Amino acid sequence: MFFDPYLVLFAFGVGILGAMFGGIQTFICTGFAGIVVYALKAAGVEPTLLGDSVLNTLLLPAIIFNAAAVATAVAARKYPEVKGWDITRSLIFTHDTGLMLVGGAAGAAGYLLFSLLSYIGIPGDAGSLAIVIIGIVVRLTLSTGRKWNPDATQYYREQGWQYWVYQTVTGLAVATVFALLLHDAGPTFYGVGFSISAALLLFGYAGDGQKVPTTHQITNIVGVTLGLTGGNVALAVLFGCLTNVVYLLVAKYFNEDCSTHVDGPAVAIFLSSMVLNLIF
Q: Considering the entire predicted model, what is its pTM?
């Protein structure tokens, strides 16, 4: 059997937590938990319980983040102050038991889908694909508004070529710095860049809007590329930058100001990881 019945129940409870605390909040916790796991590894301690039960189950985005995204989509149909694509807020203010149960069901579904994708061995990141699949299903079934953002093209026209120069420079900086750092740290630590990027979002969503960039799509693929290519820094930088471009386009066209959340970083990570696995 590709799943553990006990973990289905556990994931249901985790899904309720996702709806309670919010998608970005739980993802930030995932980042900090990852940093602790890698810090313990650096100290020569194998964090079996923390890694397996906390990082890879309790805080697995395919479970807890998915739950928050689905619950937010449902909440947007009932509460005008909730935007379906905005997973930066807790839903606890609603005091809505039904929403919490929706989060629980979504958490269990996320676990089952992740387990199935891992079991069949897809050529790509199973966690990201689980987030993408559920995001698309929710968009097609629960959407009451825009399914894509037609204003994105006008936005890019207004920004002009300077926008892409800026994104190239900043993306290249992130990819290069982490590619060199992770290369020197060694294969055991190729995943810590993703954790650092996730934790840094703590400084980005306090108050009214995002204040720091989303970079985990870059650092994740930098680590994946290093692992699959035997530490090739140049390819890690290249794929990190390309992944960032995919993220920017998906986020602008299919997430921002749309009716539900389709996660741009997850789409970019899965597509890039799939290409990398097929090539290498």
A: 0.95
